[in-house]
Each structure stands twice: as C-alpha cells, then as structure tokens.
Design a protein that fits this description.
By secondary structure, this protein is α+β, with helices and mostly antiparallel strands. Helix content is 29%, strand content 21%. The protein contains 1 helix and 6 strands. Strand 1 (45-48) and strand 2 (55-57) form a beta hairpin.
Amino acid sequence: MDTGTIVLISLGAVVFMTVIVIAVEKAAGRAREISAAGGDTATGWIIRCTKCESWRPATEAGIIRFGAASKSKRTATRCTACGELCMAAIEKGPGPEGMRRIDEHTNRSIYPETLHA
C-alpha cells in the first residue's frame, strides 16, 4: 500500500471513532436528563407474556424506554407468572381489558378492574 491509502484509512478510522464517541456522549446525556427528571420512562407501557397472557407494568420489570416508537417490540424473558421462557411483548397501554396481571410482590393474579388509578 502506498502512503496516501494508509493516510486515508487512518483518517477514516479517526472520523469513525469520533462519531462513535459523540453518539455515546449524546445518549449518555439524554439518559442523565431522564434520570434527573425522575427516570420513570416506561410509564404507560406493559410487558405481556405471550404464553400465559399475564402482564405487568414495564416499570416494575425494570424496563426503560425513551424515544420509543416501535411496533410489536419483543424481548426474551422468563415470565414471573408461569415461569416459562418467552418472547414477551412490550406494548403501550394500561393492559388489555380482562387480562390477568401479576402482582410483583405476592406473585398472585389481580385484574385491571381491581387496580386503583
């Protein structure tokens, strides 16, 4: 390789690393803003087991979503209700009508109509 090619490759690597550092810093800054504002970024989202159809608020599951605009988001997890591994759905909303919800502390089923707003 000649000197010009080496210089261009080195310059490209430096520019690439700079872009990565800027992107990471921007994301970290956004995360700090969210934490300072209270940090509860999954409000209004639920995680639903695709096997037993139980659900719970995403904040209870420790999920953080900011800038979320995905459709049919899935995540691999173990359901706290049935104990099965599944691809749980992360959905917007308070929980489907009549669908059982699992209480994080007692691991018992509760229903949306018994929840206090």
